[in-house]
Amino acid sequence: MKILFLDTETTDLEEGRLVQLAYKNRLTGDTVNEFFKPPKEISVGAMSIHHVTNEMVADKPAFDGSQFKKDLEVLLENYILVAHNALFDIGILQNEGVKTHEFIDTLRVARHTIESPEHKLQYLRYLLKLNVEGLAHDAWGDILVLEALFEYLFPIVKEKFLLLTDEEVLAKMKELTTTPVPLKNFTFGKYNGKTFEEVSKMDRGYLDWLYNSESGKPEEEQNEDMIFTLKFYLGK
């Protein structure tokens, strides 16, 4: 299968630029794990997550104009990008002038197929007992978990939707990627544990506030499933 597992670490969330790029070609086994000097400073918030400092990349090459960028552009013309919370990574690549043609988001697929209070990559790593090594919030460490999660999800999707071929499974995963998942229960805040239906009857104003808060975020930070659910209960 022409699958490219990919993860990025960036300067920040708003108009973020590439600091670390890691990917693995599932078909050939080829890997890339490189650091780059971005055209803007790495924010303190970003450093606190991925621990890549401006000093660490001061002598690294720029991604723009590099052979790594050219190689990635060629790969993405023919491969399906697989990432967790894929729209974030796609947005970062877009900021670097790299276009993504097809993609699968393991976050969305997991939400459709795995019952869990959370679906973050590292949470699923331990919930599903994915036997991998690697540091969290390091692009290469996340690639290892991402690959294991994809391989875990693939047979689940095949069985759940009664599919026969790998091509059908990939098509279904792409379909699930673009299909929002209605949320059942709050997992945060003052209504933690209550259903969205319950809260819609007792405190519609809270749902209105939450919708405005979530939809007001930059697109790559929005929880599309949350917005989809809130729209349903608010009749938007």
Give the DSSP E fraction (strand runs of 2 or more residues): 5-15%
CATH architecture annotation name of the largest domain? 2-Layer Sandwich
CATH class of the largest domain: Alpha Beta
Order of helical and strand elements: EEEHHEHEHHHHHHH
What is the CATH fold-level name of the largest domain?
Nucleotidyltransferase, domain 5
Question: Which bin fits the share of residues in helices?
Answer: 40-55%
Unreliable parts: none
Distance between the termini: 40 Å
Q: What are the salient characteristics of this protein?
A:
236 residues; alpha/beta; Nucleotidyltransferase, domain 5; 2 domains; five-stranded mixed sheet; 10 helices; 46% helix; 12% strand; globular; Ribonucl_H; 3'-5' exonuclease activity; DNA polymerase III subunit epsilon; hydrolase
Description:
The structure is a single chain. By secondary structure, the chain is an alpha/beta fold. The chain is 46% helix and 12% strand. It is built from ten helices and five strands, in the order E-E-E-H-H-E-H-E-H-H-H-H-H-H-H. It has helices at residues 44-50, 67-78, 86-95, 106-113, 121-127, 139-160, 166-177, 196-202, 204-215, 224-234, and strands spanning 3-10, 18-25, 31-35, 80-83, 102-105. It has a five-stranded mixed beta sheet. Strand 2 (18-25) and strand 3 (31-35) form a beta hairpin. Helix 5 packs across helix 6, helix 8 crosses helix 9 (204-215) and helix 9 (204-215) runs antiparallel to helix 10.
